[in-house]
Structure formats: structure tokens, C-alpha cells
Amino acid sequence: MSEHVNKYTEYEARTKAIETLLYERGVITPAAVDRVVSYYENEIGPMGGAKVVAKSWVDPEYRKWLEEDATAAIASLGYAGEQAHQISAVFNDSRTHHVVVCTLCSCYPWPVLGLPPAWYKSMEYRSRIVADPRGVLKRDFGFDVPDDVEVRVWDSSSEIRYIVIPERPAGTDSWSENELAKLVSRDSMIGVSKALTPQEVIV
Q: Which option is the CATH number for 46-200: 3.30.390.30, 3.40.50.10780, 1.20.120.740, 3.90.330.10?
């Protein structure tokens, strides 16, 4: 059997076929697609979400607003749109760890997190994280959640999407919002990792 038979998942193969058809008919060009991808990866997100998290770490009033009405609090920073019409923020602490999935498809808050990673859209992640969240976090992401910490799984949908607010790393009391934002990864806002430590990033 050829090693290329299973090159793409069903979702990826469908996307590739549509993309090829649009290219052939002149509807879009590869360069245009590259620009859109770059825009979402480097300008829209996940840097937007990182700024939201960093502000929540240093501004108690903003954090409270984020808890009460995340959609409005996030929109106040300029992150709104079709995929952010209803967002809920869930907050990690020493007793609870949150992780997000979309079991039906791949609903995702693009304006704050950018493009969803391939694994987030995969059937494997969508089914297994619900059945065994602690095991998936450890096996697939190397994230070992302590036994005394509850893991809660939140299912995104077309009606509501979620952003995880990770715990602020220790040793960052004097850091600015811009410096703190560099500690916030896309994966930490999905909940499959913690925020980076000061030792893991050069500010």
C-alpha cells in the first residue's frame, strides 16, 4: 500500500479539493490565501487573546468585566466579529483546569485565537478529550494535571465559544502587559497547556 494513501484526513482532503477548484476557476490565488493565513496567524491572533489574558492579569476591573461579559470586554480591545459574537471566559486556578473542544465541528473564536490548529479540528481530539481529558492532556500534550486539580471540558458551539484564562506565572509581578502577553500561548488559551514561565521566553 502506498504511504501516500492516507496523506490527508477527510476534512483536509475536502478542504484541499475546494481550494484547488477555486484556484482552477480563478476565484482566488495562492498568494491571496497566503496573505489571509499570515494575517490570522500574525496580526489577528492568537496575539489578540494574549493581550486579553495579560490585561486580565494586571487589571482587576477588566478581569471582573471579563468574568461577567467576556464578549463585551474582549470587543472593547478591538477583537470582535463573526466568530466572536458570543464568547465566555473560563479561569484556571489552583483547584480547576479548563480545556476547550468543539465536539460537533471546530467552532473557535478566530478574532482572539487566530486559526484553529489541525489537532483541534481532528475527530481524535474532539472525541477523546471529552472521554478522558486528563489522559489526553498528558499523552498528547505532555501536560500532567495534578490529581487534586479538577479538569473541566467546555464544548464550543455556533452559539458560544470559549477562551481559557491561564494562571499568571510566578515571578512576573513587575512585568508589563506587553511582557506578560508573550507568556500566553494559543494552546494555553485552549487549555492544553499552561502559560509559559519567565524561563521559557525571552522578554
A: 3.90.330.10
Torsions phi, psi for 201 (to 5 deg): -140, 145
99 and 189 Cβ atoms separated by less than 8 Å: no
Structural contact between residues 87 and 160, judged by C-beta atoms closer than 8 angstroms: yes
How many residues appear in the chain? 203
Give the pLDDT confidence of 156-185 residue by residue, as tens digits: 998 899 999 999 999 999 999 999 999 999
* One-character DSSP codes across 45-95: TTHHHHHHHHHHHH-HHHHHHHHH-HHHHHHTTT--SGGGSSEEEEE--SS
| 105 assigned ligand-binding residue | yes
Residue 127 assigned to a binding site: no
Q: Which residues carry out catalysis?
A: 102, 105-107
